[in-house]
Amino acid sequence: MTAIDAIAASGLKLAHGAQLALDGVDFTLRPGEIVGLIGPNGAGKSTLLRILAGVAPPDAGQIAWGGQTAGEIGRQQLARCVAWLSQSADSLSDDNGAMRASDIVALGRLPHRRAFASLTAADHAAIDRAMDEADCRQFRDRPLNGLSGGERVRVLLARALAVEAPFLLADEPAAALDPLHQLQVMRLLRAKARAGCGVLVTLHDLALASRFCDRLALLVDGRKLADGPPQAVLDDAIVARAFHVRLAHASHRGENYVTPWEPVDPWASNRTEDGHD
């Protein structure tokens, strides 16, 4: 398998009708880093993730996986190199809800298998590892539609992990989880990056983003407003402009983190001190 040294995109544009979901976005993901993709609702985070995963093409712009286009690398090779976790925990429930959790995770091995071939010993080992990492092996024999939303997320994360791809793109993997599993998932994603995987994760939780990510990319209205170390991107002025909130900054056991503290009036800069326009 040809190694992919980066996922690189430039000038990405995508419209949903008259609405621009992405407007000239440049982005690069490299092995060994965990990047948090943050931004308010509707900023274009999920859209960018889908394009980088090769799931959807942009209207304009270029994207390359290890210097190759989608046509050059081929669908199967791309599926081996880039694992993608959808935002929706119910993404398989309509057609595959009766499938056992372990069978859902086994779908992650499809890029490595020939058509209609049985699972190999290596496939079974990868499935077991992925379910252990995602903490869902205990309900491997339960049907997907018999699991809670958070349990489904862990199964779908295990499916992505089972690909054992050098790049992992995860869309809000912590959103439906309880605090324990949020921490476990973020620790796992950071460990994957430390082992050499390139990890891109969309997050709304700025505390998790600031604590676990090596780099943050901030999207607002389909454009990249900032990209860099968490302490630079989570600058008070940048956050106020993007999210209309004021942050509280803190540290614990040598790790810095932030948490949204209070709203910022987006129109305040247009008022005088006495409150009149």
TrEMBL record:
<dbReference type="GO" id="GO:0016887">
    <property type="term" value="F:ATP hydrolysis activity"/>
</dbReference>
<dbReference type="Pfam" id="PF00005">
    <property type="entry name" value="ABC_tran"/>
</dbReference>
<comment type="function">
    <text>Part of the ABC transporter complex HmuTUV involved in hemin import. Responsible for energy coupling to the transport system.</text>
</comment>
<keyword id="KW-1278">Translocase</keyword>
<dbReference type="InterPro" id="IPR003439">
    <property type="entry name" value="ABC_transporter-like_ATP-bd"/>
</dbReference>
<comment type="similarity">
    <text>Belongs to the ABC transporter superfamily.</text>
</comment>
<keyword id="KW-0813">Transport</keyword>
<feature type="domain" description="ABC transporter">
    <location>
        <begin position="7"/>
        <end position="246"/>
    </location>
</feature>
<keyword id="KW-0547">Nucleotide-binding</keyword>
<protein>
    <submittedName>
        <fullName>Iron complex transport system ATP-binding protein</fullName>
    </submittedName>
</protein>
<dbReference type="InterPro" id="IPR017871">
    <property type="entry name" value="ABC_transporter-like_CS"/>
</dbReference>
<dbReference type="GO" id="GO:0005524">
    <property type="term" value="F:ATP binding"/>
</dbReference>
<keyword id="KW-0067">ATP-binding</keyword>
<dbReference type="InterPro" id="IPR003593">
    <property type="entry name" value="AAA+_ATPase"/>
</dbReference>
<dbReference type="InterPro" id="IPR027417">
    <property type="entry name" value="P-loop_NTPase"/>
</dbReference>
